[in-house]
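Entry type: protein chain
Record version: 2
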Amino acid sequence: MLGISEHLGMKHSNRGLVTLVFALLLLGPLGVAGAQEDSESLEEYAETPEATEAESCEDCHAEGIDNAPIATLEMLEASVHDGFECEDCHEDVELGSHEEEIELVDCSNCHDDEAETYIKHGRLTVGVDADIPSCSSCHGTHDIFEPDDENSQIHPLNMPETCGNCHENYDLTENHKFLAKHPVETYRASVHGKANSQGRYSAATCNNCHFTEGTAHRILSPDDPESTINHFTIPNTCGNCHEGVAKDYWDGIHGQLVARGEIESPVCTHCHGEHQIIEHDDPRSSVSHSKVAEATCTPCHESATLNEKYGGPAGRLTSFIDSYHGLKSKAGDVTVANCASCHGAHRILPHTDETSSIYSDNLQQTCGECHPGISNELAQTKIHQIDPTAEEKWPDFFASMYMVLIGTTLGGMLIYIGLDMFRQIKNATKGEQVQRMTKWAVLQHSVLLISFTILVVTGFALRFSDSWWSLILFGREGGFPLRSLIHRISAVVLVLVSISHLFYLRGVRGREFVQHIFPSMDDITHFRQMISYNLGLRDKRPALRPIHLRREV
């Protein structure tokens, strides 16, 4: 049997158990709800750092507070690094605050292949030269896009501006002795630059010429044999776009010399230029019709050193300039033949090569491009004739004789007519003059004199196109085409006046003129008397025949 105390203890124990059960039934739902709230709070707490990390950086970087670099979530989400957090790249930066100067981002953590390739940039070396471009110099920082995105700094349309940040920087170009001054500025004015500015993705930009093995991370200086702008690799570089031209070049004598290591042999840039390449039909171009001979071909083919080494003849430019082709070309004619018309532009071969355009058996076809129907004999005429052989001395003989005749004839006429005019003027003050020619004859001779004078002036303007008087007359834009037109008109007028003289000779005065036009022994006596009279040594004028010596001359 239990005691009272035991019974009371049991009673109190049962009463406590009932109370506990009742409390659990009453507070259970509230406990579950509280547990759920605590769980949600933990999740929110766990998510808070991720949601606020970039937002915390934006507090300063969104508006550039204290000169902080501009960087926003919007920029990052639009870039190729969408999904990255700030600390993924800025590993040394703690959330909230950091030192003003932070370590540069090490892109090689992800881009290890590119970092391994990027050792040099031109003549600068990574880790040695402080001015060498970093990843951000070309790609940007928080706004990096895919290369084919027009917003990308390395998009073809934006490459000139990106490269120009350094290559148009005066301090950098002077510090590193860049020989190419303003390469980007001159590029923009070139045929490639203009096409690029018009939105043509196929137009060559910096990367097309300077990227070695197709990567911008391997840009080498010209002295590196593997460089795309090394002397011996330039034809292949240009050939990436100009495939057919490159093939012609390698087939030609210049390409053959380059292939065997001859540094003097010209490559694409020698003739066309580098960054400043312009259309070949632009008068400013070094390969334009009027400049190709003197500006492009001459520096090599008139070089005493090169001619001695390769056995080339001298005087090629002189012989061309003195020819009709050369004179017309120098005067600006864009249709007359120049060096490239006969020798070719890229597939240039010596005259001994059977496939050359100037091989003897091919000359008729070559010349026939401009002169249809030309005979083979005429096509064989020597063009660059500097030192004629003995049997070919006749041209020089006649040229010398022609100059002597011109000098003596014109000189004698000027002296004789000058003296006669002086005497005529003196006599004119003493009395009336006798009209010896009809009005029609005066008109004919006046037109003859004017047309002949104009013909001479316009002809010499072609030969001496760079003389001061020629520039005054025809130096303005369109002047030389006008010269050509005036020259031809004068020639036609001169011929027509000469034909009219033939009709004049059929008349009475004309037949009398023919009878007396030929010199006779009396002319010698008359000449001596007229000289004495004109010099004042004889008072009376000698009797004149219908056709006297002066008119015969």
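Comment: Residues 4-61 form the longest helix (58 residues).
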